[in-house]
Amino acid sequence: MAVTRDELKTRIGQALGETKADLVIKNTRFLNVVTGETAAGDIALCGDRIVGTYESYDGVEEIDGSGLTVVPGFIDTHVHCESTCVTPMEFDRCVLPRGTTTAICDPHEICNVLGEKGLRYFLDCAEGTVLDLRVQLSSCVPATELETSGARLEAADLLRHKDHPKVLGLAEFMNFPGVFHKVDGVLDKLAAFDGRHIDGHAPLLSGRELNAYLSCGIRNCHETTSAPEAMEKLRKGMQVLIRDGSVSKDVHALAPVIQPETSPFLGFCTDDRNPLDIAEEGHMDHLIRSAIRLGAPLAHVYRAATWSAARGFGLFDRGLIAPGQRADLVLLDDLEDCVVNRVIRNGRVVTPETFAGRPAVSPVGLRSVKLQPVTAEDFVVPARGSVQSVIGVLPGKIITAHLRLEVPARDGKLVADPDRDILKICVFARHGTNQNVGRGFASGFHLREGALASSVGHDSHNICVVGASDEDMAIAVNRLIELQGGFVAVRNGQVVGELALPLAGLMSLEPFETVERHLRSLRASVKGMGCPLAEPFLQLAFLPLPVIPHLKITDRGLVDVDTFALVEA
């Protein structure tokens, strides 16, 4: 909304000290992310703007900032709110009090289930959240042709929403093989958003292929997992978004990259982080704290999390404590440990009452699981040779290994071998367009018995189930159908843990505190089944993602991501 002449007069008067500022943080210190200094002085706010720093001010309302350090509000540069297992409105209530004042989301998950209906749901939510939720238009629906999604969004569908006030541009462009093969539909989307912000998704991409990818106007990447990879991308002008989610944790590997020269070209993001991890560790505050503890220069960590993040997305009104900037501020008890005392968003202190009165947004996709009940026979894998391609799960990573292991056979059928950590994994198409079932084997879950099933299966979100027993796998899938989505753990024929996610099979309708409790109980149940993974369901959810190396599985079967083709075994 454009500022009026009278509003400018008010700002000028308060900045000059002719009248009291609306709100002043007195006797405080603040981090200047331009100079790196921690300065003393009042911070004066007029409405939603900062109007004074480095001077003394009186305010209509005043906060005693003694003992506190003020920093700009944190910016999550890439997040799928769906992966928090709660609605965008609950995501707002969950992360804003932890200092995240701006989040740039890609509703890619719900769009792959519901298409434009899911996109409109997110845009409606974004207009009502207290934090500034920006929406990138999902570029890969479906992500590839190697899976069955619930919808399809072409360039013309996205262009209808291009000028929405909450839209920045095009979301993560995962289909980099489509770029190199010059696929018309892929290039149509890139051409349609030429000159607008386009997010990248380029794991392990380098050399001429990285050049070709960047030549299409793609600006950043959150899939960087090593310092050499990050440095090549930075040298070629690509903003690197350092990620730490519930599964993919890259801060440890990339903290050495954070230096005075590079920090203007970095950002932080969570990508996929659930409420249990947010409760136990934090949100953006956790990433900042972790990077500092790993030795990254403090001022440059905060710069990357605020000013650099904002500039990378063309948000020039935030990320800095200076006159004229948006009054999104975080008051810290401890700067080095990033301990949040309170948050100011748009010039107002955030309290529980802040979230009252937000517009209600009706849920969508409450009957999105259209799979019919299954039986143990649906999991049979005929024996065609003993040595098979097996997905190797890597803890804390969404990249997998392509293993070649001997899988035992019984009565002409390949079977799981829990003693050797070889479990069966299947993906069932759930959108009602076909009855595809992809079958294979995975290693890394260490289940001695039972099964885990999830309707969260990036990116098409079909039903994914892993287990030691076909019978338990069938029970888990059928319970998911009854719940209309979620996570289910089964042991010895009994459901021992579950979380219902009925909104598009991705999100709960409950408050984030309730989801946290359910996740805590579910985690304990799975640990009791012998699984050592910190986030087994989210680890499972990334195994159907055929754009992340090296071996994945979709409803069409095993996918060799390196060759971008289905494999026989």
UniProtKB/TrEMBL annotation:
Main EC class the enzyme belongs to: hydrolase
Sequence ranges assigned to domain Adenine deaminase C-terminal in this UniProt record: 398-564
Enzyme Commission number: 3.5.4.2
Highest taxon listed in the record's lineage: Bacteria
Required cofactor(s): Mn(2+)
Domain Amidohydrolase-related, residue spans: 69-350
Sorted UniProt keywords: Hydrolase, Manganese, Plasmid
MF (Gene Ontology): adenine deaminase activity
Gene Ontology terms: biological process: adenine catabolic process
Catalytic activity: adenine + H2O + H(+) = hypoxanthine + NH4(+)
Family: Belongs to the metallo-dependent hydrolases superfamily. Adenine deaminase family.
Name the record gives this protein: Adenine deaminase
Organism: Azospirillum baldaniorum
UniProt lineage: Bacteria, Pseudomonadati, Pseudomonadota, Alphaproteobacteria, Rhodospirillales
Gene name of the encoded protein: ade
